[in-house]
Amino acid sequence: MSATLNKFTVGFGISAAITTFFNTLLMIIKEEIPSVHNFMVTLSGHHWTSHGLIDVVFFLLLGFLFSKKEIHQNISTLLIISTIISVLGIILFVYYK
Amino acid sequence: MFEGILLLLHPAIAVITMLLIVWLIVSVKCQNINEARVKKLSLAIAFFMLVIWVLAGYWYVVFYSTDKSVIIQSSWSFAHKFFMETKEHIFFVVLILSLYLPIVAFKNNIATNKTAQNLIMTLGIILLTLMLYIDGAGAIISHGAEIAYMHKDGLV
Lengths: 97, 156
Known about the structure:
The complex is a heterodimer of chains A (97) and B (156).
Chain A: H1 7-32, H2 34-44, H3 47-66, H4 75-96
Chain B: H1 2-29, H2 35-62, H3 64-71, H4 78-107, H5 114-152
Helix pairs in contact in B: 1-2, 1-5, 2-4, 3-5, 4-5
């Protein structure tokens, strides 16, 4: 019974964790800095569409980057922690805005 | 008519996707794991999530601004200010994690790799939890819009 994950699984898992943080950070930056918000509107016509496209591209780029090396990481724990922190970040930012 | 169909279609597909996620979780908990089924389910979940992104995104970008202006002037302004604002950004976490699912399913031997099985289960549970929040938030926004329009039209 194997217990190690393929390097793409680890690479894209780390990328998914970082992208969830990045998603929260991008939301805060675009809400706080109007020029960033306006730039995202000009990219695709709507800030939300640009936000999603940037997240997906960021996830894919980081995923391929991290997949180049053999990294040992507990991806399940990493994703649970990153999801909790980034979702709480979204909720708290929106609540206190 | 088109606006209404679009509005109802995206949560309907979301519910189907949630059922597929439950099926996926059950599939990796089975004694004899059907690897082909796990692969197909993970692909279907990622595909449906992309479809939801396009449908919900189109409705949000094209039609929602009218509802938004009515909601934020009503007593249910929190339906937009809190629930829509959180929902629209938490969705991207769901999208990224669902796009990651097929990578886990296709790049590992799911039938024998216990770590990959646990990772799929973890992803499934995270996705289900966040999607339930998103669906609930959608229901609150919908009810908020209903109340806001009733106020606007002087019905309450």
